[in-house]
Amino acid sequence: MSLMRLAYASEATFEAKPVEKGVEPNVARILMESRRNNAKGEIVGGLYYGDNRFFQYLEGEEDAVRNLYDRIARDSRHRNVTTLLEEPLEARTFTNWSMKYVPLSSDVNRFLDKHNMDEFKPSEFNRSQCEEMVRLIRDSSQDGRVISHDVKRKDRSRQSAIPKGIGIGLVVAAVGVVGAMIYASTML
Ligand SMILES: Cc1cc2nc3c(=O)[nH]c(=O)nc-3n(C[C@H](O)[C@H](O)[C@H](O)COP(=O)(O)O)c2cc1C
Fold first, then answer.
1. Backbone phi and psi for residue 57, each to the nearest 5 degrees, phi listed first
2. Residue 34 contacts by C-beta under 8 Å, 6 or more apart in sequence?
3. Which of 5, 73, 155, 157 has the fewest CB atoms lying closer than 10 Å?
4. From atom 8 of ligand 1, which residue's Cα is the shortest distance away?
């Protein structure tokens, strides 16, 4: 089986809900779906959403990427889906990410300034701007809301070694012992 990489630009059809912190709710839902499906299909990549437009980069087995792209292109949450990159790939470069999400960041603002763009319009990116955008997503450390296979693993390992029920039992027992000691001391 052969690997491929694909990038596209599109315009969101939903009206962006203002959010003070975190991810726009429609985008958050897309990220949840991506996490669920991409991990299963061993697809990796990144998503950037800005000025109500998307830039998404996907890597994986050719069949899996093409099937996903067909599905994504039919999604009514965006329109004018324009393929920017579509080619074979030797080895994955987003190894640990089912869908890395980069929130509006100073990196992207610098990128726009550098190319004299006053808004994020990925459909007009040339090849080298696309590659730069892919690198930017890959290297971004602004990953407050990233979806990572590794993060999921770490989250699981961070869970307490003591099951919740046993923890509550221990607290109740400790309270009982202290109560008994207080009671015993009043008997002396
Ligand atoms: C901009 C955009 C990016 C998306 N990216 C992905 C993706 O990487 N993986 C994915 O499974 N679905 C993605 N989706 C959602 C798909 O279009 C589709 O709704 C979803 O895969 C259906 O999943 P389900 O059959 O599990 O409900 C994206 C949608 C949009 C609008």
1. -125, 130
2. 47, 98, 99, 147
3. 157
4. 34
